Amino acid sequence: MAITYTMEKITVIGAGAWGTALAQMLAAAGRKTLIWGHEAEVVATINKDHANPLFLPDVSLHGDLRATDDLAEAAQAELILLVTPAQFLRAVTADLAKHVKAGTPAVICAKGIEKDSYALMSEVLADTMPEAPQAVLSGPTFAIEVARGLPTAVTLACPDEALGGRIVEAVGQPHFRPYWTDDLIGAQIGGAVKNVLAIACGVVEGRGLGDNGRAALMTRGLAEMMRYGQMRGGRAETLMGLSGLGDLGLTCNSDQSRNMSLGIELGEGRLIGDILAERRSVAEGAYTVSAISDHVSPMDFEMPICTAMDGVLNYEADINATIKGMLERPFKPEQG
C-alpha cells in the first residue's frame, strides 16, 4: 500500500475502556491525541489526574493525552476513531457531522448492530456522515492489554486501499498490528455476532456445562456467524480471520469479556435486569442479539444459538429449557 503522509492529529470519540485504551496507545506513540467523553467527570479526571478510574482503572494515562466534552473541538482532526457504544453511534455522529470537515476519515471501532433498523455501523455512519470516508477497526482486543502495550493484532477494513494504508500507518505500532482488508461488512459481522456467542459461552460456564460444551457452542456459533456474514455480503476469509474467529476465541474464553461475564452471571441464576443495572460499561451482545434475531426471524434462515439467546435475554425464556431445546435439535451434517 502506498503511504502519502501520516495522520498526526487524531480524535477518539468515546471515553469508555476501549476508547481510552486506543487514545492512550496513540498518545504514547506521539500522535496529537484528543479524546471526547460524554461524562464531564471522566473528562475532568483524564485532564487533571491522567487517569480514567471509572472505565480503565489502574492505568496511568500519557501526560499529553487531552480530553474534551465539546464535539466541535473534537471534530478538528485528521482522523476520527468512533468508539461510542453501537446503539448510540447514530446520535453521536449526527451531532459530530455538524462540525467535522468534509472528507475527514472516520474509523468505526464499535462492535454491534443497531437494534431497530438492523443496520451495521457503516450503514449508520453513511446516514449521518455521508461525506466521511469509512474504515472499521476490529479484532481480538481487551482494552487493558492494549493500554499496557501488550501485543495485539487487529483487522483494519477500508474499501480504499490507499486510505487504509494511511490509517494503518497512523495507528499501527510494533505491539499493535493492523492487517488491512477491503471487506468492510465481514469485519463488522464478526465483531457483532461474537458478542452474542460470548454471552452464550458465559451461560455454559455459569451452568457448569464443561469445556466440551463451550467448544461445541463456539464452533457451531462460528458457523452461524459465517452464514449471517455471507448473507449480508461479507467474505468467509474475513470471518475466519482476526475480526471473526480471532475475536470469538478471545471473547468466549475469558471473564475479562463483559459479554462472557454477563453470561456467567445469567448461568448462575441472576436476572438480566439486575446484572445490567449494576454495570457502567456496555455489554454490546445484550442489544445486538435482538437485532440479529429480529432480522432473520421472517426469513428461512437459521441462527439457533442467537435466537435462543434472544429468548433468554429479552423474553424471559427459562435457561434450562432453552439448553434442553438446543441439545434436542435434530442431528444434521456439520456443514449445515
Quick overview:
The protein has 336 residues and is α/β, with parallel strands linked by helices. The chain has helices at residues 17-28, 40-49, 71-74, 89-96, 121-128, 143-147, 161-171, 184-206, 210-231, 236-239, 242-251, 258-267, 272-277, 285-296, 304-314, 319-327, and strands at residues 9-13, 32-36, 66-68, 79-82, 106-108, 134-138, 152-157, 176-181.
The counted number of beta strands is 8
Any idea what the radius of gyration is?
Answer: 19 Å
Rough shape? Answer: globular
Secondary-structure element sequence?
EHEHEHEHEHEHEHEHHHHHHHHH
Instruction: State the share of residues found in helices, binned by percent.
Output: 40-55%
Mean pLDDT over the full residue set: 96
CATH superfamily of the largest domain: NAD(P)-binding Rossmann-like Domain
User: End-to-end span in angstroms?
Assistant: 38 Å
Question: Which CATH-level-2 architecture of the largest domain?
Answer: 3-Layer(aba) Sandwich
Helix count, DSSP H or I runs of 4 or more residues: 16
User: What is the CATH first-level class name of the largest domain?
Assistant: Alpha Beta
Tell me the strand order in the biggest sheet: 3-2-1-4-5-6-7-8
Q: Which ranges are low-confidence, i.e. pLDDT below 50, for 5 or more consecutive residues?
A: none
Account of the protein in words:
- The chain has 336 residues and is an alpha/beta fold.
- The protein folds into two domains: 9-182, 3-Layer(aba) Sandwich (Rossmann fold); 192-327, N-(1-d-carboxylethyl)-l-norvaline Dehydrogenase, domain 2.
- Helices cover 49% and strands 11% of the residues.
- The chain has 16 helices and eight strands.
- It has helices spanning 17-28, 40-49, 71-74, 89-96, 121-128, 143-147, 161-171, 184-206, 210-231, 236-239, 242-251, 258-267, 272-277, 285-296, 304-314, 319-327; strands spanning 9-13, 32-36, 66-68, 79-82, 106-108, 134-138, 152-157, 176-181.
- An eight-stranded mixed sheet has the order 3-2-1-4-5-6-7-8, sandwiched between helices.
- Helix 5 links the parallel strand 5 (106-108) and strand 6 (134-138).
- Helix 8 (184-206) packs antiparallel against helix 9 and helix 8 (184-206) runs parallel beside helix 11 (242-251).
- The longest helix has 23 residues, at 184-206.
- The relative contact order is 0.11.
- The mean pLDDT is 96.
